[in-house]
Design goal:
Shape: globular
Number of domains: 1
Number of strands: 15
Number of helices: 17
Radius of gyration: 21 Å
Strand content: 15-25%
CATH architecture: 5-stranded Propeller
Bound molecules: N~2~-(3-carboxypropanoyl)-L-arginine
Distance between the termini: 54 Å
């Protein structure tokens, strides 16, 4: 297999039937702004299907990861709440509505937070490594980790080419690939992996004045060891506290890289010039860094438009190209769209495309949040289990199922009705069947339990 046979597959998380706006994520400005407003789960999932079709038309390998069961049956049982929605939903709705909305969150759609993935050429044993993220800094997100681990165990089960690591202990808060960037001219040659963190667990820096720093440095260090990465090809960088306080809760809100190109805001990292020099040196100079100045695109504008939460991709048919897939919100911002046009004119980007993922964006998830990158060769991709590599047929079947089984809209008060939990379970069962993945266990019927 030559380095040329490697591609980057993007696995997208499908929004779930209980997608709602609950304002659960402090430091994520969009989540706060949307809190309590009406959400449109069917539209969210159809926007995701359209996105996957769009990426396939760019000749990219597209994967699909299903939504998680909600309201989180395993977690509900662990908390001693039983397992019958008709019992625990109404009682939580009155005693602990915040917990109920966490249980219902569809946040697993942002699979950039599902795991950290290192491609085979970087790892100690020459296999593709996955570490499921524990997402322990937020209640509604830590619920995801056990189911994500099970999904990755099912989909990437072939031990000849994949190695999977369980989530790190919760105290080592880890938010997965959203704080990880893999750089290198070719997907099939050893690259350099950048791990970004917000705080240290041991000898911590001063507290953030406004918003919490989610990722712990020691988590990235553990992942790098577990994946057997070469320490000379691993770089650690701390997020700038000012960026976190401006709403950069993950690094992928302020930087995006692909192969030998890194697009990064001037205020992304602490000691930014040292970080960029370390990356440049580790890649022996084979890296183009575009540092976007504050005077051209301010931090606030970057967070508002999600300019950096775009997918930087190399379509299969265009080796060497760098195409940016950005959210619609970037096109609507005259300053940002003019800036992106200038990158195309300068030849840094071959093209910029804009996508409508507004339902996800309203909770702070742009195109890049919605996907998990897995660089792999054709052999490894052929060993992926389930029907999770998107084809026209799979996407058509998913679309038809979503149109007939997803709720059109959800208001906060709807979470108190156990019928939503039943409808969500039915909708989910069909998705798992279409993707040929083991079905999550159903709720017991109302009479039982
Ligand atoms: O963790 N939003 C997610 C958005 C995650 C975006 N992912 C990346 N940047 N890779 C979060 O903040 C909002 C849920 C709510 O408020 O209902 C939420 O969890």
């Amino acid at each position: 297999m030559s380095a040329r046979d490697f591609v980057e597959a993007n696995f997208d998380g499908l929004p779930g039937p209980t997608h709602n706006f609950a304002g659960l994520a402090p430091g994520n400005l969009a989540s706060g702004h949307s809190a309590g407003s009406r959400a449109w789960p069917r539209q969210a999932a159809l926007q995701s299907i359209d996105k996957m079709r769009f990426m396939r038309n760019l000749e990219l390998v597209q994967g699909i990861l299903p939504p998680h069961p909600r309201p989180a049956p395993d977690f509900v049982r662990q908390l001693g709440l039983g397992d019958t929605p008709e019992h625990f939903v109404p009682s939580l709705a009155s005693s602990s509505p915040g917990l109920l909305s966490a249980l219902y969150s569809s946040s697993a759609m942002w699979v950039a937070n599902a795991a950290t993935v290192s491609p085979a050429p970087d790892t100690g044993d020459g296999r593709i490594h996955f570490t499921t993220a524990n997402l322990s800094s937020q209640l509604h997100r830590c619920i995801e980790a056990p189911h994500t681990a099970r999904l990755l165990d099912n989909v990437f089960s072939d031990d000849e080419v994949f190695t999977r690591h369980t989530p790190l202990p919760a105290v080592l808060a880890d938010e997965g690939a959203a704080n990880h960037t893999r750089l290198g001219r070719d997907y099939g040659e050893p690259g350099v992996e950048l791990f970004v963190y917000g705080r240290r667990l041991v000898n911590p820096e001063a507290e953030q004045p406004r918003f919490p720093a989610r990722q712990v440095r020691e988590a990235g260090e553990a992942v790098a060891r577990l994946h057997g990465l070469d320490p000379h090809r691993t770089v650690f960088a701390r997020q700038s506290p000012a960026a976190i306080d401006a709403g950069v809760f993950h690094n992928d809100v302020i930087a995006v890289g692909n192969r030998d190109l890194l697009l990064v805001h001037e205020h992304a990292f602490e000691r930014q010039s040292d970080v960029l020099r370390a990356l440049h040196d580790a890649l022996a100079g084979e890296l183009t860094i575009v540092e976007v100045p504050e005077r051209t695109v301010s931090l606030d504008r970057a967070v508002g438009s999600y300019l950096f939460n775009a997918q930087l991709v190399t379509p299969n048919g265009e080796p060497g190209s760098q195409v940016l897939v950005a959210p619609f919100e970037c096109r609507e911002d005259a300053v940002v769209s003019a800036y992106l046009d200038s990158l195309v004119r300068a030849g840094t980007l071959s093209a910029v495309h804009y996508l409508d993922v507004r339902q996800s964006m309203k909770n702070g998830g742009g195109p890049a949040c919605l996907r998990l990158r897995v660089a792999a060769d054709a052999d490894a991709l052929a060993r992926v289990r389930g029907r999770v590599i998107a084809s026209d047929d799979v996407l058509d079947e998913l679309q038809a199922w979503i149109e007939s089984h997803y709720p059109e809209h959800i208001d906060p008060a709807d979470l108190a009705n156990p019928a939503l939990a039943r409808a969500a379970a039915l909708a989910l069962a069909g998705i798992y069947q279409i993707l040929q993945l083991p079905a999550p266990s159903p709720w017991p019927s109302p009479g039982q339990g």
